[in-house]
Amino acid sequence: MSSPLTIADVGEFEVIARLKQRFARSGVGIVRGIGDDTAVLRPSPGYLVLATTDAAVEGVHFLRASTTPRLLGQRVLAVNLSDIAAMGGIPRWALVSLSLPETTPLDFIDDLAAGLGEEAARFGVGIVGGNLARSPERLVLDLTLLGEGEPDRVVYRTGARAGDRVLVTGTLGDAAAGLAVLLGDAPSGLPGADELIGRQRLPTPRVEAGRVIARSGLATAMIDVSDGLASDLGHLCEDNGLGATVFADQLPLSAAIQTLAATVGRDPLDWALHGGEDYELLLTAPSERVAQLTAAVQAVGVRLTDVGEMTERAGIWLQRPGGQREPLRGTLWRHF
Amino acid sequence: MSSPLTIADVGEFEVIARLKQRFARSGVGIVRGIGDDTAVLRPSPGYLVLATTDAAVEGVHFLRASTTPRLLGQRVLAVNLSDIAAMGGIPRWALVSLSLPETTPLDFIDDLAAGLGEEAARFGVGIVGGNLARSPERLVLDLTLLGEGEPDRVVYRTGARAGDRVLVTGTLGDAAAGLAVLLGDAPSGLPGADELIGRQRLPTPRVEAGRVIARSGLATAMIDVSDGLASDLGHLCEDNGLGATVFADQLPLSAAIQTLAATVGRDPLDWALHGGEDYELLLTAPSERVAQLTAAVQAVGVRLTDVGEMTERAGIWLQRPGGQREPLRGTLWRHF
């Protein structure tokens, strides 16, 4: 049996040629993709350009043993898409920087590229450039995503006012609960457990909901929930010089997380408030606009839930059904 | 004596806050810089957007012991600037993705950021976003640079015609000769040795010359010399389906490289043809435009030298003064 071909066997230029061929598909506004000194892009007249970057480091953000290269490719794009979604933007063009050991099998790169390409096609993104470098021990996958947005429609983190409602898309805590299952801290056989694991492995960036929210002009501020509601609401409060109250009984929980929490005797709110990687959208809007906003988001198949209120008074509070309040400290999702 | 503060001591958010403050300076077209889910940029009406990415991996592209964090920050931006220069573009906005060990001293990050900021200011670039991640063993610095260019002025790798002259900015081989000095393969005390080392440590991206070349409309194709003249001329020939002849006695050599080569008994052409990291511009133009082009580039203080000719016949040849020709194979600069 022969061992699989690696990058060292075929060389860098062969790998680049394969990637160039795979990503050759044309897209919106691509004058020149991979293969020149830079990508050349034609922005839509009158639109702003959005730019974000996020990395996945082997052994830190993922383990080769517990993911697949295809999922890894999809996931790193999904996480960046979520940032474009949080501005209400249209994702357009990606640049991929791959640093990896020379012993990496070609199949691994092909599968990673397939995952990237699949997710890119799904969201109308063109992969227009990149870099290939050697990294002795670990794969580091760095992705930069560019998007576009209408100047009077981009939704920033700032703009929230005291009295605005706090709204969130989808359900919270599923990715953290899925991680608990993956780590063996919760049983894997329960109904819905696979759904939780799926949300951990590959989040669904809320691009379409973000577009609807931006185009409606009804939201005052928006952020994506990557580090957990408590932490990301903390950023929103800090950036607006406001506080917030979150109502515990209004937090949107999936049936799967409730089943799992009941089985292991945990409060599902721990996952919903402090679990990271949900990649839902967290936004604010004046109360008189909430019904219209909720209907608009529902129209694209996404639930929008009113979970609290922005307040003049600093601090973030969790209010229980009985009326008692406790400070909701952002257990910051530390990457170090 | 207390040990220096590290990222682990102060946490990720403190580091981000410091970087945010350092890079808060506004720039051209920056609606929102670091601090939101994405940067928000206003492209110049009618211009194309250029996008490129390049990485520096510790132990592969640099050694902490033989560079300084400031130089490292400057260099990774310079290398990306060279790609924008090779399109004739205007550099505008950068995103920096830093993956590094938690034991990295804060001072190191501050100096790296200072180097980045210094080089950015020099070239009118705004640092508008980034990412911070943990990388257990090695620092990986990934930079994405965006620029702009006039649609009818951007210079691609394609567009060269048989009979076009081959031109190059500056001098060739200095960075490779500087590396030889740094590695102890050549003596360090000779006149000009420091200049060679300087060119290896921090290349000068030919942004201004690239702009002059693009605006003149006189060049037919352009690339930057990152992997050595033989290799990058190889790319240019391949992308245009042409061959080329290079005249050995026309290659621009600095006084420093000639002194060093004579001392160690080496042919300076080895460095000039096959050494990487010069980051000069390599371009083609019809012979009747060469004088005008050379004068225009000279006007911004950069030498432009006619070193050869694009040919219908495939293959790249080096022609010696006596008239004998030898095939000039691109000794590809392998990153693996």
Give structural notes.
The structure is a homodimer of 336-residue chains. Chain A is an alpha+beta fold and 336 residues long. Chain A folds into two domains: 143 residues, 60s Ribosomal Protein L30, Chain: A, CATH 3.30.1330.10; 163 residues, PurM-like C-terminal domain (Phosphoribosyl-aminoimidazole Synthetase, Chain A, domain 2, Alpha-Beta Complex). Helix content of chain A is 34%, strand content 24%. Chain A contains eleven helices and 13 strands. In chain A, the strands form three sheets. The first copy, chain A, has a seven-stranded mixed β-sheet, with helices on both faces. In chain A, a hairpin with a 5-residue loop joins strand 12 and strand 13. The radius of gyration of chain A is 21 Å and the shape is globular. The N and C termini of chain A lie far apart (42 Å). Strand 3 of chain A pairs antiparallel with strand 2 of chain B, so a sheet runs across the interface.
